[in-house]
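Good day; I would like, with your permission, to put a structural problem before you. What I wish to show you is a protein chain and, alongside it, a tokenised description of its three-dimensional fold. I would ask you to consider whether the tokens describe a fold that such a sequence might reasonably adopt. You will find the record immediately after this paragraph:
***
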Amino acid sequence: MKVAGFGEILLRLSTKKGLLISNSKEFDVNYGGGEANVLISLSKFGIETRAITKVSDNQIGETIINYLKEKSVETSFIARGNKRTPIYFLEMGSGNRGSKVIYDRKDSVFGSITEKDINIKEALKDVDVFHFSGITLAISEETRKLTLKILKYCKENNILVSYDSNYRAKMWTLEEASKVTKKILPYVNIFSAGILDAENILNMNCNLENKYEKLKYYYHEITKIYPNIEYIFSSIREVQSSSVNRLQCNYYTNNKLYSSKIYTIDEIVDRVGGGDALTAGVLYSIINNKSPEYTCEFATSASVLKHTICGDANLVTFEDVENLMKNGVGKISR
């Protein structure tokens, strides 16, 4: 099985824990992007992956390609261009101070991508699952047009489509997101969306108080409107501090909602990419025909482990995740 991801890859500059951007003299360098994070995680789980994107035609772009290659992600369908590499600055939170992200991605090289840069038929050759996010749709009209063409090709060629709503208020309005999301959902089979996505982007509402009942109701309504959607999932996160969170995965398929155990994450190293790790866990489980119960636990465990790793991508193996699922936090592995 092969998974392709279509999205922007950014240069990440982050502060050290305990420092603000305003009093940092240096930044840690990393690379990240929702789709790339999912692909890297799946590669660590033994799934073949392929990146479809566009990077700068300079040394930074070359470094991004090498970064993906090092993580066993195929890079044959990465176009190059003479526009800038997008950047995001991450101010690492600590204790009661949350993390902060500042984007510097306007007029980026990926935002100029068109069908001339990518041969859709070749890029999706032998691909079983195509993954993208709302971030890709938010970047530019060009990325939206190309995404829609790719989705139509996927539908015509029985390629499963995975979509992470991943709304970013700093990138576009709820009105824009709602209009575009409703246009692409008829092509989606695997959908990552929570209560706020249902209410604010899909304009749904209900009088239910219990969050699980709400999820079940909204997911049922979504699959009624879009019967092509076979799987829906999201996480519920309780933030006790920037260092301590509680996390749970909720997964809906065949008209039933499944929930994982609630995991407490102590001493968070890096929360960025936790949602992408969860998505990779769900995709891995669907690809391998795992039960809904297994899917919930595997995805949550993968996300929990990501919180212990610096950088955007989850670098743990399938065995690492299963070990946490089965044994919890135990003795040293020798």
